[in-house]
Amino acid sequence: MRIRRATLVTGILVIAACAGCSRFTVQSSFDPAASFQALRTYAWKPGPQPSIGDPRVSDSLVDTTVRSAVDRELAAKGYAKSSPDSADFLLAYDAGIDFETSTVAITRSTNAGDGAWVPRQVPQTTDFERGTVVLMVFNPNAKLIWRGVATGIFDPTATREKREQRLTDGIHKLLDQFPPH
Fold it and tell me: Using the 8-state DSSP alphabet, how is residue 139 labeled?
């Protein structure tokens, strides 16, 4: 009974650890000299976006999803989309997929005889890909004033709908940090 309970607890912990690995993280930085209070209008930076190069994220679906999610989040915060000539700030983004490795220590028990069990830890390594979106905010003079990074936002193995939802959720979480407080 104890062994089954320990196995069940270990299994739950491994599943929880793996689930934690699959979520995204966000971080941001900003120019402390920049004034964000007067910002009311925005536009996407004219010209080509930075070259992504990875065909898994360099497609019109990703571009449309990222831009639409950013537009929705900024509209919900009261920002109005305008032309690049009259915008208070300009946006650009970059995206890519990185290769990561996660190691989790799993405790297994070995029968040492006479009813004694000896615990031992076995490392379990999992390789996975973590997609990243970098959203950049520039003032009208093209100076970077805010940058947000959402890591773990792409899952190339997910269905199209799940990829879109994950991108949308990641952009929402990322823009929770804009403007900086």
Answer: -
Is the CB of residue 99 less than 8 Å from the CB of residue 125? Answer: no
Domain range holding 149?
24-100+128-175
Predicted local distance difference test score (pLDDT) of residue 151: 87
Give the bridge partners for 104, in sequence order: 124
Which has more pLDDT, 79 or 158?
A: 79
Q: Is the pLDDT of residue 73 over 60?
A: yes
| Predicted confidence band of residue 178 (pLDDT cuts 50, 70, 90) | very high
Q: How far apart are the first and last CA of the chain?
A: 53
Backbone angles phi, psi at 66, to 5 degrees: -65, -50
**Does the residue 19 lie in any domain?**
no
Domain tally, the chain: 1
List, in sequence order, the alpha helices (H) in the chain. Answer: 2-22, 60-76, 160-175
Cβ–Cβ < 8 Å for 39, 88: yes
- Structure confidence at residue 95 (pLDDT): 81
Give pLDDT, residue 86.
96
Side chain identity, residue 82? S
| Distance between CA atoms of residues 37 and 180, nearest Å | 10
Pairing state of beta strands 116-138 and 144-151? antiparallel
Q: What is the CATH number of the domain that holds 51?
A: 3.30.160.670
